[in-house]
């Protein structure tokens, strides 16, 4: 760090102190309310939004009172609301889902709201979004469902209410002119309103590496604030007046779109740029960035672990530190005109990509291969969208929004085309923090070495021109850094039972990188494939699943599998053939799943008892059922599989009950199998399964039980757990431990769990 930039040095020290503070273990604060409890809140309405037909309030400075039945502790609107005088009940912010979607209260209102508490959920699997960590980091305590306003006192002419109405009215106009889908995209780009956006469109932009254009960023601020400033300067107005007009526009636009981290960062940096021009001083982008970072971290230190914050500042660092070196690398001589502009754009895009690559991989576990090209082609069109959207929103002439609609059409079509291209996504898994530090260390050395070599007086080094040596050293630094960060995670030999609520999902991996899945679905977790299975695969750098085994056609065993097959082209995860029993293959309930398998380019294959398969080090043997086992209960037709990896073996048995024991044990004896290391408990730990006869024969060391917390079936049943304890079988339940991993070693195995372990797998207790 240059000593000529004291702000950068101070910021670096401040960032380091915050990192050290965040690394210290901190006990979770006790929750004074429990899930499902009825409470009455008093707070200030900070924000309102509409999402999926819901009216949502964000209340801040909240205090609460637990309700006795449907009665609050004190009368509605009472000035003596007891929790306000009770420091223990003073909370941060609460999200309220209102029961009446039409009754919108003005922003800034002081209100009392009653409803049912729903606590934020913790991540239970690797790669799963940690809802609790995200919202608690922003100061939110819990959600309030089925909320009703008991008392409200507000001003419809307040500043924040006026801004909200302008924003809502403008977003509504975009929707009427461009249609709901494109109108919501334009509202996200111009107004920062992303809640109405279609989730699939949002994901499409993210998969192609252009999701940043949906967020209000420096591009918006620069185009509006700097554009107005330069326009006024050219008109001959005094520079002081131009500066004031630019700052007023920045403040107005910031209040309109919400003071997000990227908006504040861009606003501070542009204000300093205008101030430098006003005072006839030079502007240093990195120092301005450092000051904006200090301001934001003083407001909220949790920003340092926020992906949006890191990507925003990473992009500025890429432009300020890395892009100049890339320009020198690709442009050895002086350039002008169009060649200079193209070279500068390429350098800036590559600089941003290099600076933000580890952040993207750490939070999203993948990198869109074509994102650099897409950014070069599509980002310049954003100026058209911004000018068209702002002009159309102000003047309200539909024709003015036509250019924005055309560009948004181009964006969507290009993104959908890129998803179909081969190898559009590189899945690397989450890199370790040590690798990330080493990567940035290599980039820093690339910058320092290049400058050092260029500053030397000798014309030649090692018999070569100094410039050529500098470029070679920089290129080597780039290549080494890329190789380091893009190497996929090393395969781990293990059995993972994912926590998918009331359902089943087992992923088996070997040391050679081969992967099979046995069942994946849930009856109480929505889109378990998209939000649990697929993120888990990406987190672990799994870009290909070699085979999928389905025990029986119940949704809690195949719903996530259907999503996996349907989205394999978009996610970039290759999925192999689906293996079913003769009886499952005849069931109409799986017809849609079979169609998805065929559309994904895979096959549905029927396996009969006695059939063996080997995928890498993973060996499977089907034990049950054959075509003659036409039992009335579909659960008793579950395909039972014996799996072996080296010295470790386990039994996978779907939802089979004790009625199948005789056939399964007979098949095991016939194959010479008399015990297993691990047993996946039958039917989520049901008392009608997992008989003493079966447990006595298996002699398992451990049993894995998959079931949902608070499930209506009462799984796992107490009698099942008592039987396992009787025979010395250690059991592990997903509803208590989250994801369970059986980590295979040369001399045995260990069992790890994920829930309540700070986002890492730890020894299960």
- Structural category is alpha/beta
Calculate the terminal CA-CA distance, rounded to whole Å: 46 Å
- Mind describing the biggest β-sheet? 9 strands, mixed
CATH superfamily of the domain at 494-763: Ribonuclease Z/Hydroxyacylglutathione hydrolase-like
The main sheet orders its strands as: 15-14-13-12-11-10-23-24-25
Query: How many helix segments?
Result: 24
Looking at the structure, what is the overall shape? Answer: globular
Which radius of gyration do the C-alpha atoms yield? 30 Å
CATH class categorisation of the domain at 494-763: Alpha Beta
Structure, described:
The chain is an alpha/beta fold and 765 residues long. Among the domains are: 38-155, Beta Barrel (OB fold (Dihydrolipoamide Acetyltransferase, E2P)); 434-486; 494-763, Ribonuclease Z/Hydroxyacylglutathione hydrolase-like (Metallo-beta-lactamase, Chain A, 4-Layer Sandwich). It is 44% helix and 19% strand. The chain has a nine-stranded mixed beta sheet. Strands 16-17-18-19-20-21-22 form a seven-stranded mixed beta sheet. Strand 21, helix 23 (718-726) and strand 22 (730-733) form a beta-alpha-beta unit. The longest helix has 28 residues, at 337-364. The model is unreliable at 72-88 (pLDDT under 50).
């Amino acid at each position: 760090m240059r000593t000529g930039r004291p702000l950068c040095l101070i910021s670096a020290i401040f960032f380091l102190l915050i990192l050290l503070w965040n690394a210290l273990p901190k006990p979770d604060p006790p929750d004074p309310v429990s899930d499902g409890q009825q409470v009455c809140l008093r707070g200030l309405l900070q924000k309102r939004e509409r999402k999926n037909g819901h009216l949502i309030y964000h209340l801040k400075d909240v205090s609460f009172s637990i309700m006795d039945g449907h009665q609050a502790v004190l009368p509605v609107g009472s000035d003596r609301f007891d929790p306000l005088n009770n420091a223990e009940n003073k909370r941060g912010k609460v999200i309220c889902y209102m029961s009446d979607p039409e009754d919108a209260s003005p922003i800034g209102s002081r209100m009392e709201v009653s409803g049912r508490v729903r606590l934020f959920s913790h991540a239970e699997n690797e790669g799963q979004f940690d809802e609790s960590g995200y919202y608690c980091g922003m100061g939110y305590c819990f959600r309030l469902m089925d909320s009703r306003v008991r008392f409200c006192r507000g001003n419809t002419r307040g500043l924040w209410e006026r801004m909200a109405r302008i924003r809502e009215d403008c977003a509504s106009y975009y929707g009427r002119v461009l249609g709901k889908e494109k109108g919501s995209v334009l509202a996200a780009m111009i107004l920062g309103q992303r809640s109405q956006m279609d989730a699939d469109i949002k994901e499409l932009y993210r998969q192609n590496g252009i999701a940043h254009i949906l967020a209000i960023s420096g591009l918006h601020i620069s185009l509006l604030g700097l554009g107005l400033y330069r326009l006024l300067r050219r008109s001959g107005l005094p520079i002081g007046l131009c500066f004031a007009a630019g700052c007023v526009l920045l403040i107005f636009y910031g209040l309109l779109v919400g003071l997000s981290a990227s908006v504040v960062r861009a606003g501070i940096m542009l204000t300093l740029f205008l101030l430098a021009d006003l005072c006839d001083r030079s502007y240093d982008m990195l120092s301005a960035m450092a000051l904006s970072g200090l301001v934001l971290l003083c407001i909220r230190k949790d920003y340092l672990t926020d992906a949006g914050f890191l990507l925003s500042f990473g992009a500025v660092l890429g432009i300020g530190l890395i892009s100049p070196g890339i320009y020198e690398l690709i442009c050895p001589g002086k350039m002008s005109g169009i060649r200079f502009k193209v070279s500068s754009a390429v350098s800036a895009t590559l600089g941003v990509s290099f600076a933000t690559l580890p952040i993207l991989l750490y939070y999203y576990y993948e990198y869109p291969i074509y994102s650099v090209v897409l950014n070069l082609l599509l980002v310049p069109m954003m100026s058209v969208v911004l000018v068209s959207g702002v002009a159309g929103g102000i003047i309200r002439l539909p024709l003015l929004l036509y250019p924005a609609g055309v560009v948004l059409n181009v964006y969507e079509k290009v993104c959908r085309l890129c998803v179909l291209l081969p190898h559009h996504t590189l899945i690397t898994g989450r890199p370790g923090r040590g690798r990330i530090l080493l990567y940035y260390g290599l980039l820093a050395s690339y910058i320092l070495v290049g400058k050092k070599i260029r500053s030397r007086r000798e014309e030649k080094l090692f018999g070569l021109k100094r410039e050529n040596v500098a470029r070679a050293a920089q290129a080597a630094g780039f290549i080494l850094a890329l190789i380091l960060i893009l190497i996929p995670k090393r395969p781990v030999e293990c059995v993972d039972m994912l926590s998918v609520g009331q359902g089943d999902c087992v992923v088996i991996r070997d040391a050679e990188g081969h992967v099979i899945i046995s069942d994946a679905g849930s009856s109480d977790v929505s889109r378990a494939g998209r939000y649990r299975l697929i993120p888990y695969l990406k987190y672990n750098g799994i870009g290909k699943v070699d085979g999928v085994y389905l025990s029986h056609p119940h949704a809690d065993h195949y719903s996530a599998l259907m999503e996996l097959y349907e989205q394999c082209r978009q996610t970039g995860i290759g999925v192999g053939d689906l293996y079913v029993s003769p009886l499952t293959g005849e069931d109409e309930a799986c017809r849609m799943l079979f169609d998805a398998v065929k559309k994904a380019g895979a096959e549905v294959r029927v396996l009969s008892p006695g059939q063996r398969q080997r995928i890498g080090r993973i060996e499977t043997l089907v034990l049950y059922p054959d075509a003659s086992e036409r039992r009335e209960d579909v659960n008793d037709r579950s395909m039972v599989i014996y799996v072996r990896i080296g010295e470790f073996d386990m039994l996978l048995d779907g939802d089979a009950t004790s009625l199948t024991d005789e056939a399964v044990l007979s098949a095991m004896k016939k194959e010479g199998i008399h015990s297993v290391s691990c047993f996946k408990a039958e039917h989520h730990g049901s008392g009608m399964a997992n008989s003493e006869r079966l447990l006595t024969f298996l002699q398992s060391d451990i049993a894995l039980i998959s079931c949902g917390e608070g499930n209506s079936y009462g799984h796992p049943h107490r009698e099942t757990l008592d039987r396992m304890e009787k025979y010395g079988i250690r059991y592990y339940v997903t509803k208590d431990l989250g994801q369970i991993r059986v980590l295979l070693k040369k001399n045995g195995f260990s069992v790890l769990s994920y829930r309540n372990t700070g986002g890492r797998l730890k020894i299960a207790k």
